[in-house]
Protein backbone atom coordinates (compact mmCIF):
# COMPACT_ATOMS: atom_id res chain seq x y z
CA UNK A 1 0.00 0.00 0.00
CA UNK A 2 1.13 3.53 -0.70
CA UNK A 3 1.87 5.64 2.41
CA UNK A 4 -0.29 8.41 3.74
CA UNK A 5 1.19 11.90 3.91
CA UNK A 6 3.48 12.34 6.90
CA UNK A 7 3.60 8.65 7.82
CA UNK A 8 6.82 6.73 8.38
CA UNK A 9 7.33 3.10 7.40
CA UNK A 10 8.39 0.12 9.43
CA UNK A 11 11.49 -1.33 7.81
CA UNK A 12 12.53 -4.91 8.51
CA UNK A 13 16.19 -5.65 7.76
CA UNK A 14 17.16 -9.30 7.52
CA UNK A 15 20.88 -10.05 7.64
CA UNK A 16 21.76 -6.96 9.62
CA UNK A 17 25.11 -8.35 10.81
CA UNK A 18 26.75 -8.75 7.39
CA UNK A 19 28.79 -6.24 5.41
CA UNK A 20 25.80 -4.58 3.74
CA UNK A 21 23.49 -5.13 6.72
CA UNK A 22 25.92 -3.33 9.00
CA UNK A 23 25.79 -0.26 6.74
CA UNK A 24 22.01 -0.49 6.31
CA UNK A 25 21.56 0.02 10.03
CA UNK A 26 23.19 3.42 9.52
CA UNK A 27 21.67 4.47 6.19
CA UNK A 28 18.08 3.43 6.92
CA UNK A 29 17.84 4.75 10.48
CA UNK A 30 16.44 8.19 9.47
CA UNK A 31 13.74 6.72 7.22
CA UNK A 32 11.37 5.11 9.71
CA UNK A 33 11.01 2.51 12.43
CA UNK A 34 13.93 0.16 11.86
CA UNK A 35 13.63 -3.47 13.00
CA UNK A 36 16.83 -5.51 12.75
CA UNK A 37 16.46 -8.96 14.34
CA UNK A 38 19.58 -10.54 15.80
CA UNK A 39 21.01 -13.42 13.80
CA UNK A 40 19.88 -16.00 16.35
CA UNK A 41 16.33 -14.64 16.34
CA UNK A 42 15.62 -15.41 12.67
CA UNK A 43 16.81 -18.66 11.12
CA UNK A 44 16.99 -18.12 7.35
CA UNK A 45 17.02 -21.89 6.88
CA UNK A 46 13.69 -22.36 8.65
CA UNK A 47 10.83 -21.08 6.45
CA UNK A 48 8.20 -21.17 9.20
CA UNK A 49 10.45 -19.26 11.57
CA UNK A 50 11.02 -16.70 8.84
CA UNK A 51 7.30 -16.34 8.14
CA UNK A 52 6.51 -15.84 11.83
CA UNK A 53 9.17 -13.17 12.16
CA UNK A 54 7.85 -11.18 9.20
CA UNK A 55 4.22 -11.49 10.28
CA UNK A 56 5.04 -10.35 13.80
CA UNK A 57 6.59 -7.12 12.49
CA UNK A 58 4.21 -6.48 9.56
CA UNK A 59 6.66 -4.12 7.81
CA UNK A 60 5.88 -1.84 4.91
CA UNK A 61 9.40 -2.44 3.58
CA UNK A 62 11.57 -5.57 3.82
CA UNK A 63 15.28 -5.39 3.06
CA UNK A 64 16.93 -8.79 2.73
CA UNK A 65 20.69 -8.56 3.14
CA UNK A 66 21.02 -12.14 4.40
CA UNK A 67 22.86 -14.55 2.11
CA UNK A 68 25.02 -17.64 1.96
CA UNK A 69 28.18 -16.02 0.57
CA UNK A 70 30.74 -18.82 0.69
CA UNK A 71 31.35 -19.23 -3.05
CA UNK A 72 33.69 -22.21 -2.73
CA UNK A 73 31.91 -23.71 0.28
CA UNK A 74 28.63 -23.72 -1.62
CA UNK A 75 30.01 -26.33 -4.03
CA UNK A 76 29.98 -28.87 -1.19
CA UNK A 77 26.97 -27.42 0.65
CA UNK A 78 24.43 -27.00 -2.12
CA UNK A 79 21.38 -27.56 0.09
CA UNK A 80 22.43 -24.88 2.57
CA UNK A 81 23.23 -22.37 -0.18
CA UNK A 82 19.87 -22.91 -1.87
CA UNK A 83 18.05 -22.77 1.46
CA UNK A 84 19.38 -19.30 2.25
CA UNK A 85 19.77 -17.85 -1.25
CA UNK A 86 16.69 -19.27 -2.99
CA UNK A 87 14.13 -20.77 -0.61
CA UNK A 88 14.30 -17.95 1.96
CA UNK A 89 13.86 -15.18 -0.67
CA UNK A 90 10.80 -17.05 -1.98
CA UNK A 91 9.29 -17.12 1.51
CA UNK A 92 10.11 -13.44 2.08
CA UNK A 93 8.66 -12.44 -1.29
CA UNK A 94 5.42 -14.30 -0.63
CA UNK A 95 5.06 -12.62 2.75
CA UNK A 96 5.87 -9.23 1.20
CA UNK A 97 3.18 -9.76 -1.43
CA UNK A 98 0.63 -10.67 1.24
CA UNK A 99 1.47 -7.48 3.17
CA UNK A 100 1.68 -5.25 0.10
CA UNK A 101 5.24 -4.47 1.19
CA UNK A 102 8.21 -3.45 -0.92
CA UNK A 103 10.99 -6.06 -0.97
CA UNK A 104 14.59 -5.06 -1.60
CA UNK A 105 16.95 -7.98 -2.16
CA UNK A 106 20.64 -8.20 -3.08
CA UNK A 107 22.01 -10.45 -5.78
CA UNK A 108 25.37 -10.94 -7.46
CA UNK A 109 27.45 -10.60 -10.61
CA UNK A 110 27.99 -14.36 -10.22
CA UNK A 111 24.63 -15.02 -11.89
CA UNK A 112 26.53 -14.38 -15.15
CA UNK A 113 29.19 -16.57 -16.77
CA UNK A 114 31.54 -13.67 -17.54
CA UNK A 115 31.93 -14.43 -21.25
CA UNK A 116 30.39 -11.14 -22.43
CA UNK A 117 32.91 -8.57 -23.63
CA UNK A 118 30.91 -5.51 -22.53
CA UNK A 119 29.52 -4.81 -19.04
CA UNK A 120 26.41 -6.81 -18.22
CA UNK A 121 23.00 -5.12 -18.35
CA UNK A 122 20.02 -6.19 -16.28
CA UNK A 123 18.27 -7.97 -19.17
CA UNK A 124 21.21 -10.19 -20.10
CA UNK A 125 20.49 -13.90 -19.75
CA UNK A 126 21.85 -15.37 -16.53
CA UNK A 127 24.21 -18.35 -16.80
CA UNK A 128 26.00 -18.98 -13.49
CA UNK A 129 29.19 -21.02 -13.28
CA UNK A 130 28.90 -22.09 -9.63
CA UNK A 131 26.41 -23.39 -7.09
CA UNK A 132 26.56 -20.01 -5.37
CA UNK A 133 25.67 -18.25 -8.62
CA UNK A 134 22.92 -20.77 -9.35
CA UNK A 135 21.40 -20.24 -5.91
CA UNK A 136 21.43 -16.45 -6.30
CA UNK A 137 19.81 -16.71 -9.74
CA UNK A 138 17.17 -19.04 -8.29
CA UNK A 139 16.48 -16.48 -5.57
CA UNK A 140 15.93 -13.78 -8.18
CA UNK A 141 13.47 -15.99 -10.07
CA UNK A 142 11.59 -16.88 -6.91
CA UNK A 143 11.12 -13.22 -6.01
CA UNK A 144 9.93 -12.28 -9.49
CA UNK A 145 7.38 -15.10 -9.43
CA UNK A 146 6.02 -14.21 -6.00
CA UNK A 147 5.65 -10.42 -6.04
CA UNK A 148 5.60 -7.47 -8.41
CA UNK A 149 6.77 -4.95 -5.83
CA UNK A 150 10.49 -5.63 -5.59
CA UNK A 151 13.92 -4.15 -6.23
CA UNK A 152 16.70 -6.67 -6.81
CA UNK A 153 20.10 -4.99 -6.61
CA UNK A 154 22.90 -6.97 -8.22
CA UNK A 155 26.29 -6.01 -6.83
CA UNK A 156 29.93 -6.98 -7.36
CA UNK A 157 33.13 -7.35 -5.34
CA UNK A 158 31.64 -5.93 -2.14
CA UNK A 159 33.96 -4.59 0.56
CA UNK A 160 33.68 -2.57 3.76
CA UNK A 161 35.11 -2.00 7.20
CA UNK A 162 32.83 -4.65 8.73
CA UNK A 163 33.14 -8.36 8.10
CA UNK A 164 35.47 -10.34 5.87
CA UNK A 165 36.34 -9.37 2.31
CA UNK A 166 39.15 -9.44 -0.25
CA UNK A 167 40.52 -6.02 0.70
CA UNK A 168 40.91 -6.82 4.38
CA UNK A 169 42.42 -10.21 3.56
CA UNK A 170 45.05 -8.56 1.36
CA UNK A 171 45.84 -5.97 4.02
CA UNK A 172 46.26 -8.69 6.64
CA UNK A 173 48.56 -10.75 4.42
CA UNK A 174 50.62 -7.67 3.60
CA UNK A 175 51.02 -6.91 7.28
CA UNK A 176 52.04 -10.51 8.04
CA UNK A 177 54.54 -10.68 5.18
CA UNK A 178 55.16 -13.29 2.53
CA UNK A 179 54.18 -13.13 -1.13
CA UNK A 180 50.96 -12.30 -2.93
CA UNK A 181 49.91 -14.03 -6.16
CA UNK A 182 46.68 -12.49 -7.42
CA UNK A 183 44.53 -13.30 -10.45
CA UNK A 184 44.85 -10.71 -13.20
CA UNK A 185 42.39 -12.01 -15.83
CA UNK A 186 39.13 -11.45 -13.94
CA UNK A 187 37.78 -7.89 -14.04
CA UNK A 188 35.11 -6.01 -12.14
CA UNK A 189 34.50 -3.02 -9.90
CA UNK A 190 35.11 -3.16 -6.13
CA UNK A 191 31.93 -1.80 -4.57
CA UNK A 192 31.60 -0.39 -1.03
CA UNK A 193 28.91 -1.85 1.21
CA UNK A 194 28.27 1.74 2.32
CA UNK A 195 27.44 2.77 -1.26
CA UNK A 196 25.01 -0.12 -1.62
CA UNK A 197 23.34 0.84 1.65
CA UNK A 198 23.11 4.53 0.70
CA UNK A 199 21.57 3.70 -2.68
CA UNK A 200 19.10 1.43 -0.90
CA UNK A 201 18.08 4.32 1.35
CA UNK A 202 17.71 6.61 -1.66
CA UNK A 203 15.47 4.07 -3.42
CA UNK A 204 13.34 3.54 -0.32
CA UNK A 205 12.81 7.26 0.11
CA UNK A 206 11.79 7.57 -3.54
CA UNK A 207 9.33 4.72 -3.10
CA UNK A 208 7.85 6.03 0.15
CA UNK A 209 7.47 9.53 -1.26
CA UNK A 210 5.61 8.19 -4.29
CA UNK A 211 8.40 8.98 -6.77
CA UNK A 212 8.79 5.36 -7.88
CA UNK A 213 6.20 4.07 -10.32
CA UNK A 214 5.05 0.47 -10.65
CA UNK A 215 6.94 0.18 -13.95
CA UNK A 216 10.20 1.01 -12.18
CA UNK A 217 10.24 -2.04 -9.93
CA UNK A 218 12.66 -4.73 -11.07
CA UNK A 219 16.35 -5.56 -11.26
CA UNK A 220 19.08 -2.93 -11.02
CA UNK A 221 22.85 -3.15 -11.15
CA UNK A 222 24.80 -1.37 -8.40
CA UNK A 223 28.57 -1.11 -8.73
CA UNK A 224 31.29 1.49 -8.52
CA UNK A 225 32.41 3.28 -11.66
CA UNK A 226 35.56 2.11 -13.38
CA UNK A 227 37.06 -1.34 -13.51
CA UNK A 228 40.12 -3.30 -12.44
CA UNK A 229 41.39 -6.85 -12.07
CA UNK A 230 41.84 -8.58 -8.73
CA UNK A 231 45.58 -8.01 -9.21
CA UNK A 232 45.11 -4.31 -9.95
CA UNK A 233 42.78 -4.03 -6.98
CA UNK A 234 45.34 -5.56 -4.61
CA UNK A 235 48.21 -3.46 -5.98
CA UNK A 236 46.32 -0.16 -5.77
CA UNK A 237 44.90 -1.05 -2.36
CA UNK A 238 48.39 -1.65 -0.97
CA UNK A 239 49.75 1.54 -2.50
CA UNK A 240 46.96 3.54 -0.85
CA UNK A 241 47.68 1.76 2.43
CA UNK A 242 51.38 2.64 2.15
CA UNK A 243 50.47 6.27 1.45
CA UNK A 244 48.54 6.28 4.74
CA UNK A 245 51.40 4.79 6.74
CA UNK A 246 49.62 1.48 7.35
CA UNK A 247 51.95 -1.41 8.25
CA UNK A 248 52.91 -3.65 5.31
CA UNK A 249 55.80 -5.95 4.56
CA UNK A 250 54.96 -6.25 0.86
CA UNK A 251 55.73 -3.58 -1.69
CA UNK A 252 52.76 -2.98 -4.02
CA UNK A 253 55.03 -3.52 -7.04
CA UNK A 254 55.85 -7.02 -5.76
CA UNK A 255 52.28 -8.30 -6.05
CA UNK A 256 52.54 -11.08 -8.65
CA UNK A 257 49.97 -11.27 -11.44
CA UNK A 258 48.76 -14.79 -12.29
CA UNK A 259 46.07 -16.22 -14.54
CA UNK A 260 42.94 -17.89 -13.19
CA UNK A 261 44.20 -21.19 -14.60
CA UNK A 262 47.27 -20.89 -12.38
CA UNK A 263 45.22 -20.12 -9.28
CA UNK A 264 42.74 -22.93 -8.84
CA UNK A 265 39.58 -22.49 -6.79
CA UNK A 266 36.82 -24.95 -5.97
CA UNK A 267 34.18 -22.83 -7.75
CA UNK A 268 34.59 -21.13 -11.12
CA UNK A 269 34.42 -17.32 -11.19
CA UNK A 270 33.27 -15.13 -14.10
CA UNK A 271 36.11 -13.50 -16.04
CA UNK A 272 33.96 -10.41 -16.59
CA UNK A 273 32.07 -9.12 -13.55
CA UNK A 274 31.49 -5.61 -14.90
CA UNK A 275 27.93 -4.37 -14.39
CA UNK A 276 26.31 -1.59 -16.42
CA UNK A 277 24.71 0.81 -13.93
CA UNK A 278 22.91 3.04 -16.45
CA UNK A 279 19.45 1.89 -15.38
CA UNK A 280 19.79 2.79 -11.71
CA UNK A 281 21.65 6.06 -12.32
CA UNK A 282 18.99 7.22 -14.77
CA UNK A 283 16.00 6.02 -12.74
CA UNK A 284 17.11 7.54 -9.45
CA UNK A 285 19.30 10.40 -10.68
CA UNK A 286 22.51 9.02 -9.22
CA UNK A 287 26.22 9.19 -10.02
CA UNK A 288 28.37 6.17 -9.20
CA UNK A 289 31.73 7.11 -7.66
CA UNK A 290 34.92 5.57 -9.05
CA UNK A 291 35.93 2.43 -7.16
CA UNK A 292 39.12 3.90 -5.69
CA UNK A 293 37.03 6.54 -3.87
CA UNK A 294 35.36 3.86 -1.77
CA UNK A 295 38.61 2.02 -1.14
CA UNK A 296 40.29 5.23 0.01
CA UNK A 297 37.43 5.97 2.38
CA UNK A 298 37.61 2.48 3.88
CA UNK A 299 41.37 2.83 4.39
CA UNK A 300 40.92 6.21 6.05
CA UNK A 301 38.68 4.48 8.58
CA UNK A 302 40.84 1.38 9.02
CA UNK A 303 44.15 3.24 9.29
CA UNK A 304 43.19 4.61 12.71
CA UNK A 305 43.29 1.19 14.35
CA UNK A 306 44.98 -1.15 11.84
By CATH's scheme, which homologous superfamily of the domain at 10-164 and 190-225 and 274-289 applies?
NAD(P)-binding Rossmann-like Domain
Mean pLDDT: 95
The quaternary organization reads as single chain
First and last CA, distance: 47 Å
Strand content: 5-15%
Number of strands: 12
Weakly predicted, low-confidence segments: none
Instruction: State the share of residues found in helices, binned by percent.
Output: 25-40%
* Text of the CATH class of the domain at 10-164 and 190-225 and 274-289: Alpha Beta
- Please describe the biggest sheet, giving its number of strands, its sense, and whether it closes into a barrel: 6 strands, parallel
How big is the Rg? 19 Å
N to C succession of SSEs: EHEHEHHEHEEHEEEHEEHEHH
Q: What is the CATH topology descriptor of the domain at 10-164 and 190-225 and 274-289?
A: Rossmann fold
If helices are DSSP runs of H or I spanning 4 or more residues, what is the number of helices? 10
Strand arrangement, largest sheet?
2-1-3-4-5-10
> What form results from the Cα inertia axes?
globular
Judged by helices, strands and strand pairing, the structural class is alpha/beta
User: In the CATH classification, which architecture of the domain at 10-164 and 190-225 and 274-289 applies?
Assistant: 3-Layer(aba) Sandwich
Describe this structure as you would to a colleague.
- The chain has 306 residues and is of the alpha/beta class.
- The protein has a domain at 10-164 and 190-225 and 274-289: Rossmann fold.
- The protein is built from ten helices and twelve strands.
- The strands form four sheets. It has a six-stranded parallel beta sheet with strand order 2-1-3-4-5-10, with helices on both faces.
- Strand 4, helix 5 and strand 5 (150-155) form a beta-alpha-beta unit.
- Helix 1 (19-27) packs across helix 7 (193-208), helix 6 packs across helix 8 (230-243) and helix 8 crosses helix 10 (291-302).
- The longest helix has 22 residues, at 78-99.
- The radius of gyration is 19 Å and the shape is globular.
